[in-house]
């Protein structure tokens, strides 16, 4: 009997080893994990990939497109079964994308578009994010001098966000109700670059700024530093719902942050990466639709999730979802903020 049990145990171990051996290797080329925005994504994506019996292989480019290209090339050489890329600069890494496509490795562009027909695109509706930022800021400041602080010029999302903003403020700009007194890209989406842009505009206009459209929360924070130093508090919007930004919303120094529920985004990306690695064609991914709104109009299979505006009136949404804690959000909050009472 003992011998039979031992043989059975060995058989189970052998089957388990075969199952593990059949697990897929999913490479994930992150752009810059020093930015708080991506920390939730890492945890959620890794969990989905590993719980399905596959191997999560992350690399971080640290904001360098050159390093990301090297990361991609190494993962191709290592024989990953699928590749998730959060691109630093879509054009700078295109040669690596072409090599992965030639090697038959399925790819996902994570939150930032890569215009290639062999790359699946998963993101939020970034044109919609731009609309939300502009609409809520415009509601608070329907006229006056506006500053627009855009993200990195190498990121396709920068153009999508600007498109959405234009849909909201374009007519008011044309009529002269809104005057754009400054518009510039902050390289790397970095707060310090946004702060420098804001300081320059304030100096050029004699502090005559009435509203700011920033394309993410980090840059909004940098702009707010410059505004505060000049003694100004003006309507300003961003996106990502970083804890610091949500605290600014509660304190009244930031008007809106757009929440892109990155847990959902990362989980879906992990599931899709596994499906692609197992051989599922992109057009058979559930809910996939073709998107051709990039600069070159290349049709790509995609999934786009819906964003959520978070203002002082809706801070309870992110708190109740455990995206942030009430303690983080409500420090020095205005007494009128219901979520912090």
Overall tally of domains:
2
Strand order of the largest sheet: 2-1-3-4-5-12-11
The largest sheet is: 7 strands, mixed
Give the second-level CATH assignment, the architecture of the largest domain: 3-Layer(aba) Sandwich
Alpha-beta content class:
alpha/beta
Q: How far apart are the first and last residues' alpha carbons, in Å?
A: 67 Å
**Fourth CATH level, the homologous superfamily of the largest domain:** Response regulator
Helical residue percent band: 40-55%
Global mean pLDDT:
93
Instruction: Tell me the CATH topology of the largest domain.
Output: Rossmann fold
Low-pLDDT runs of 5+ residues are: 1-21
Please give the CATH class of the largest domain.
Alpha Beta
What's the alpha carbon Rg, rounded to whole Å? 23 Å
Describe the structure.
This protein has helices at residues 2-21, 39-51, 65-78, 94-102, 126-140, 156-175, 191-205, 217-229, 243-251, 262-277, 315-320, 326-330, and strands at residues 25-30, 55-60, 82-85, 107-110, 119-124, 144-150, 178-185, 211-214, 236-239, 256-259, 289-291, 300-305, 308-310. The protein is of the alpha/beta class and 341 residues long. Helix 7 packs across helix 8 (217-229). Mean pLDDT is 93; it is low at 1-21.
